[in-house]
Amino acid sequence: AQSVAQPEDQVNVAEGNPLTVKCTYSVSGNPYLFWYVQYPNRGLQFLLKYITGDNLVKGSYGFEAEFNKSQTSFHLKKPSALVSDSALYFCAVRAFIPGAGSYQLTFGKGTKLSVIP
Amino acid sequence: GAVVSQHPSRVICKSGTSVKIECRSLDFQATTMFWYRQFPKKSLMLMATSNEGSKATYEQGVEKDKFLINHASLTLSTLTVTSAHPEDSSFYICSARGLAGGPVNDEQFFGPGTRLTVL
Predict the structure, then answer these.
(1) Which among A105, A106, A109 is the top mutation candidate for probing chain B, defined by the most B β-carbons within 10 Å of its own β-carbon?
(2) Could you read off the pLDDT of B69-89 as tens digits, one per residue?
(3) Average pLDDT, whole number, for chain A?
(4) Residue A29: left (phi > 0), alpha (psi -120 to 50), or beta?
(5) Which CB contacts under 8 angstroms, 24+ apart, belong to A42-45?
(6) Are the Cβ atoms of B109 and A46 closer than 8 angstroms?
(7) Interface check A100 vs B, CB under 8 A
């Protein structure tokens, strides 16, 4: 069965510093990987995805993620954090679920990012 | 980008009443819609997957008679919480996936969520 691990419940970073939010995954076959951001009392907003191609994926709001097949990781990064980046971040993997007969997203538990002014 | 709307955004109801939440894909057709439940400071829990015109597939532990899902068209799915109780209070998020080969391909997009509070 597929799974996603986000080992950090919370990440604190000073404004202007680089940030990393960690994610590792387990899935059969080639992984389709996603990062979403959630602001309080809001739904999920898509940040970026990896399907194939370059291991470094660039997404919205200056975020990027690096796919590492050998380490089964897909860490989210940003060179310079903004206070407005403070939110809940979810990593997800898409896999085909035979019982459901369709693809489903499996989410990590989320990491709360706090950017300190 | 593709937009998914949910209505209402927030609802407060009395215990024992039923509440209906609508999920619409505004600018694309969605053959598959998903309903998630999110507890405070927790991840999203998939409740059910619904395909247009067929019965929803519920995840283990989700009561199908309590959480009624209807997916009557390619742009609308509804979740009805029947005989709601305080423990049903939660944040419910829907998601819609486009048709493969369509304008948004088979990407999955999320609604803004509905905060349900049962008194």
Answers:
(1) A105
(2) 998 888 999 999 999 999 999
(3) 92
(4) left
(5) A42/B112, A42/B113, A43/B4, A43/B6, A43/B93, A43/B110, A43/B111, A43/B112, A43/B113, A44/A90, A44/B44, A44/B93, A44/B95, A44/B110, A45/B110
(6) yes
(7) yes
Place of tokens 């799974």: A3
Q: Which residue has the tokens 């088979």?
A: B106
Q: In this structure, are residues A54 and A69 in contact, taking their beta carbons and an 8 Å threshold?
A: no
Quickly state the pLDDT bin for B1 (edges 50, 70, 90).
Answer: low
Could you tell me which chain B residue has the CA closest to the CA of A90? B43
Closest-CA distance of chain A to residue B62, Å? 15
Candidates B3, B11, B44, B47: best to mutate against A (most CBs of A within 10 A) is: B44
Interchain pair A42, B46: CB under 8 A: no
> Largest Cα–Cα distance of chain A, in whole Å?
47
pLDDT (average), residues A54-65:
94
